[in-house]
């Protein structure tokens, strides 16, 4: 296989939540895999709302530019180092590595390469977005049949999986979104009640139609939506705080109100933060299940149809995601 002598990758050259201003493309020598390593040609990379947190320096306080960007990617092995037995050139693999996604190639320890059925946009979507929903709902919230689940930003990259996996667990699922295209997707995914907050008043609908609240909330919007979700927790309710996208570009907003425990204790409720890298031990069981559900048609994968091609398109893709334009997971073809 003929390989180039150089490759390109996206790096942050300054700290800023403005992704476009913070990033640049650099060309560097292509490394050769050392003992126990594999060289991977990335084909698809997932775009995440938290990309702007990474360029702002919030993921690794004290880290100074330049540093590499991107998270999940899929591609194929193009070269293996000495001692690598389990992988060979041509094998499709996935990676979940901070700084590995927005790059044409990456060289990593072979043990960190995840065998995948194919190097496709659908598979890359399952890596971070699918795993987050699967592990959070099953291992942390422990969703049970008959429970009521509320999913905010339900038509996004990870929300779509939270809806479907909660349904597969036997729950009643309410999903929120902001466009009719997203509402149509949620209906196709089996959402029991879809709330387009631009057509209905979210607070009024939840208070009126669900006076007993929700057993589980899968929340990624933050701000006033988070406050409402805390209010809507049922007795013994569990709120999974996956993110707070509404504050990513501005930074966290200071608030002045009664402390959270005054709302949780009367309901014996809980708010739990969820950060996927803390649950690596569960990847081995959850990822094969996700692949199996997808392969058998029990889990649909919604990829936003807007094409983003090459590293040059990554800033466009990040801005598109933050504008709320996406229906499903945003993916860049490399």
Provide the low-confidence segments as ranges.
none
CATH class category name of the largest domain: Alpha Beta
Q: How much strand?
A: 15-25%
Biggest pleated-sheet summary: 6 strands, antiparallel
If helices are DSSP runs of H or I spanning 4 or more residues, what is the number of helices? 10
How would you name the CATH homologous superfamily of the largest domain? NAD(P)-binding Rossmann-like Domain
How many β-strand stretches?
Answer: 15
Rough outline: globular
Query: Structural class given helices, strands, pairing?
Result: alpha/beta
Distance between the termini: 19 Å
- Quote the CATH topology of the largest domain: Rossmann fold
SSE string, helix = H, strand = E?
Answer: EHEEHEEEEEHEHEHEHEHEHEHHE
By CATH, the architecture of the largest domain is named 3-Layer(aba) Sandwich
Mean pLDDT: 96
Radius of gyration: 20 Å
The amount of helix comes to 25-40%
How many individual domains? 2
Pfam families: ADH_N, ADH_zinc_N
Domain Enoyl reductase (ER): 18-332
Organism: Rhodothermus marinus
InterPro entries: ADH-like_C, ADH-like_N, ER, GroES-like_sf, NAD(P)-bd_dom_sf, Quin_OxRdtase/zeta-crystal_CS, Zn-ADH-like_protein
């Amino acid at each position: 296989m003929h390989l180039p002598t150089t490759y390109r990758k996206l790096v942050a050259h300054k700290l800023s939540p403005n992704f476009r201003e913070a990033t640049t493309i650099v060309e560097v020598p292509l490394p050769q895999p050392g003992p126990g390593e594999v060289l991977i040609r990335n084909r698809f990379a997932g775009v995440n709302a938290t990309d702007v947190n990474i360029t702002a320096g919030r993921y690794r306080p004290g880290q100074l530019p330049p540093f590499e960007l991107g998270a999940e990617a899929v591609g194929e092995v193009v070269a293996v180092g000495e001692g690598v037995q389990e992988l060979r050139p041509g094998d499709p693999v996935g990676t979940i590595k901070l700084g590995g996604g927005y790059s044409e190639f990456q060289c990593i320890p072979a043990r960190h390469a995840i065998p995948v059925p194919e190097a496709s946009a659908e598979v890359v979507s399952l890596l971070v977005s699918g795993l987050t929903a699967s592990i959070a709902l099953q291992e942390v919230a422990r969703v049970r049949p008959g429970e009521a689940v509320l999913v905010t930003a339900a038509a996004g990259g990870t929300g779509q999986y939270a809806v479907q996996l909660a349904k597969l667990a036997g729950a009643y699922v309410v999903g929120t979104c902001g466009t009719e295209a997203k509402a149509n997707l949620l209906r196709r995914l089996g959402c029991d009640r879809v709330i387009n907050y631009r057509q209905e008043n979210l607070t009024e609908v939840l208070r009126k139609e669900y006076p007993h609240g929700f057993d589980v909330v899968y929340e990624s919007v933050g701000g006033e939506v988070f406050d409402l979700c805390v209010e809507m927790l049922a007795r013994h309710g569990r709120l999974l705080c996956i993110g707070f996208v509404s504050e990513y570009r501005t930074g966290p907003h200071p608030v002045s109100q009664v402390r959270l425990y005054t709302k949780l204790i009367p309901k014996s409720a809980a708010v739990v933060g969820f950060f996927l890298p803390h649950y690596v031990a569960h990847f081995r069981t959850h990822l094969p299940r996700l692949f199996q559900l997808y392969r058998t048609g029990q889990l649909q994968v919604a990829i936003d149809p807007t094409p983003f091609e090459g590293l040059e398109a990554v800033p466009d893709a990040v801005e598109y995601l933050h504008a709320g334009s996406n229906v499903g997971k945003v993916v860049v073809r490399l």
